[in-house]
Amino acid sequence: MGWRSSHETWGTLEKQTGLGGITRSHTGACLGSFTPSVSQLPAPELNEAPERAPRQQVRFLPTPAPGGGGAVELVAASVPVLADHPLVRGPRFRKLKIGAGHRLDVKASGVFVLGIGHGNKLLTDLYNCHLTKVYTVGGLFGKATDDFSDTGNLVEKTTFDHITREKLERILAVIQGTNQKALLMYSNIDMKTQEAYELAVKGLIRPMGKSPPIITAIRCLQFALPEFQLEIHCLHETQQYLRKVVHEIGLELKSSAVCTQVRRTRDGVFTVDDALPRTQWNLQSIQEAIRNCQLKVEAELEKTLAHEENSPLHQLDGTQLSMLCRSVHEQSLQHNTAAMCQQCDGQQKERG
Amino acid sequence: MAGLVRRLLYRGFCVPAGPPSTRQLREVEEAAPVFQYAGKAAKRKDRVFVWGFSYSGALGIPSFVKPDAGWKKPRRIQPTPYRLETEDKISSAACGYGFTLLASNTRDITKLWGMGLNKDSQLGFQRSRRDQTKGYEYVLEPSPIPLPLEKPQQTRVLQVSCGRAHSLVLTDSEGVFTMGNNSYGQCGRKVVEDEIYSGSHLIHQLKEFDSRVVQVVCGQDHSLFRTKKGSVYACGWGADGQTGLGHYNITSVPTKLHGDIAGVNIIQVSSYGDCCLAVSDEGDVFGWGNSEYLQLASVTETTQVNVPRHLPFKIGKVKEAACGGTGNAVLTEEGNVFVWGYGILGKGPNLIETAEPEMIPPSLFGWSDFSPDTRVAHVRCGLSQFAALTNRGELFVWGKNLRGCLGTGRMEDQYFPWRVTVPGEVVDVACGVDHMEGSLQSSATEWMGGTMPSQT
């Protein structure tokens, strides 16, 4: 019984609200403490929405016979099932299944992709696309610490007056050069084919499997001694690796550097503009955000996974792939109970 | 014992150590000593790198050919750029067919060094230590080439160029010096029958041109001279029409070219095989010589063109041209590279030959929405490979990877431009048949005391 009710919670959650998909939020908290808080956010609002009518069942109730005299007759009557009564069952929605995309550690901030309900499946597919992520990394010259960030224990202080923007850019060019080699090696492309040439022109040469962190592009956005800011496009990285890169840049320039800020501005197709800040973590914004990004996610999956030979999604043709993403819409449209929340009704009418 | 500590804590006689407060951290930080690793001298050091086939001695590193330690093995091919130690700053370099010339524009007596194949005395006379009357046939490390200058402490060497078995040296006030094989008159002097070129001391001087020579170019067996007035002179083998003088015979005296370049101010000439290209100040391209590989097929069906012809390409104003053995490349003012001819042209394995120039997408040279200012600054050609230098100091190569001459670290041919990893910005590159040489600028500060400190 308990299992069945939670299972139903699933189906009805999506049917009623269309809340199955991917959303992303703008956060500075770490994953472990973050997920419970986010998973419980929409629940109260969903519980407040008017529910569907309880199921009816046919029961044969004893009623006094019209003849009189104590005889009892069984009459069929449609009565509501008591198990559906809110006082028996409790609140419909307690928790939502939330999955997270690429990790973002405690000291970093920025775009963090989450999947709700059926969207978790899309998360795996997006992971297999191996799209690049863009970070804004802030650094400070003159210090070296043990964990490469400015809050660590100080190891050494050095001079930095000799550093110019030109020298920094030269180091960045060297970094980009060595990473390009690694990119080629892990991409497993035969350089002799015409396909390799076409991928290179489009810039699509990427490792499609496991690889160490690779920086595809790096450039200096701001330079004001002792601070500087870099924009880094990378794959398969961790935020601590980026801090280490800042530390190594400092060493190459014959000084030292610590990382003051790591902020993810883009994760695959999701940018800062699509992300929801803390003030907008409510049901309506989440639903809107999911809707806005649906097309983008679909397009990216089709484009990248079409190149892949081994992915099971490759066997699906284009229409089936888009159906996977649109199944949520159709289920909610099929639902035809009168007592649907007005919010959802209005939104569905907008979608058309 | 524990009770004593507890009583002391209770009375406030000792305070347990908690996490350091911000003020404590700041004080510790300010008290820490500051280390200086950067030296004061901010001069940029220029370095020479070589890569490719080493057994001819063209790389100038003797330990590759004759290892100087028992554990070292001979290195036939150097697949990635390797630093060549030179005492002087090298301002000009050229790679020939198995040999290299390095020149410095200093006023010192020694201005020119050569290494590699010397069977035709293309590196001058290199006196052998074992037998003082004979010369070396292979020079394994950069050795000075004595030029018969009138004023050796004033004249500067501006540019050098190397062909198959001859070389040209351009000076600022004493004309052009030629050395090496002269069987076709490519050294600009009369052909002597049965002349023995090996161990020859003869270095010829050329001075009779309409104005000062500003560029010298060696083809395979011919020589081209470009003067300040914009005219082009040629001498040497002409069976493919590469001398451009209207006939297919050899020429042993530099003679002025006419045809479509008569009266045109030519600002650059290029050749390496049997085809030649010239660029005028207005951005037009002229070509003559061998056209068996469709190099000049846009204007004529004949396979040998012995008079300079204008190539009417609609690709924009051309800034620089590079002529290889079977393929040609030009660089336009906008920074785009166009290729045509035969062989690995740089647009994937499907493009083998074309008579009309095709553009190589700039994204292959590092251009992107992310860095829209990147463009190609120079193009160079070897016999079957191309090199491009961008304005960010990056070197891209493509073509046949003959004995590792591309420097990519792999031995396979490269069908589209690929970046060569070099420590520094590439200022210039010279391409040969199976080796290449690059001049780099390194970073501007030096480590203090000349040694790197230990890093955490």
TrEMBL record, chain A:
The Pseudouridine synthase II N-terminal domain, residue ranges: 94-238
GO biological process: mRNA pseudouridine synthesis; positive regulation of mitochondrial translation; RNA processing
Lineage: superkingdom: Eukaryota
MF terms in GO: RNA binding; tRNA pseudouridine(55) synthase activity
GO annotation, cellular component aspect: mitochondrial matrix; ribonucleoprotein granule
UniProt region (Disordered), positions on chain: 1-21
Family: Belongs to the pseudouridine synthase TruB family.
Protein name: TruB pseudouridine synthase family member 2
Organism: Serinus canaria (Island canary)
Gene: TRUB2
From TrEMBL, chain B:
Keywords: Membrane, Mitochondrion, Mitochondrion inner membrane, Repeat, Transit peptide
InterPro entries referenced in this protein's UniProt entry, alphabetically: Mitochondrial_GEF_domain, RCC1-like_dom, RCC1/BLIP-II, Reg_chr_condens
Keyword set includes Repeat: yes
Pfam families: RCC1, WD40_RLD
Swiss-Prot/TrEMBL GO biological process terms: mitochondrial fusion; positive regulation of mitochondrial translation
This protein's record includes keyword Mitochondrion: yes
Domain RCC1-like: 43-325
Repeat region (RCC), residues: 46-106, 110-173, 174-229, 230-282, 283-334, 393-442
Domain of life: Eukaryota
Gene3D superfamilies associated with the record: Regulator of chromosome condensation 1/beta-lactamase-inhibitor protein II (2.130.10.30)
SUPFAM superfamilies in UniProt: RCC1/BLIP-II
Any one GO molecular-function label of the UniProt entry: rRNA binding
Subcellular location(s) of the protein: Mitochondrion inner membrane
GO cellular component: mitochondrial inner membrane
Role, per record: Guanine nucleotide exchange factor (GEF) for mitochondrial dynamin-related GTPase OPA1. Activates OPA1, by exchanging bound GDP for free GTP, and drives OPA1 and MFN1-dependent mitochondrial fusion. Plays an essential role in mitochondrial ribosome biogenesis. As a component of a functional protein-RNA module, consisting of RCC1L, NGRN, RPUSD3, RPUSD4, TRUB2, FASTKD2 and 16S mitochondrial ribosomal RNA (16S mt-rRNA), controls 16S mt-rRNA abundance and is required for intra-mitochondrial translation of core subunits of the oxidative phosphorylation system.
Subunit structure: Forms a regulatory protein-RNA complex, consisting of RCC1L, NGRN, RPUSD3, RPUSD4, TRUB2, FASTKD2 and 16S mt-rRNA. Interacts with 16S mt-rRNA; this interaction is direct. Interacts with OPA1; this interaction is direct.
Protein name per its UniProtKB record: RCC1-like G exchanging factor-like protein
Species the sequence originates in: Serinus canaria
Lineage: Eukaryota, Metazoa, Chordata, Craniata, Vertebrata
Gene that specifies this protein: RCC1L
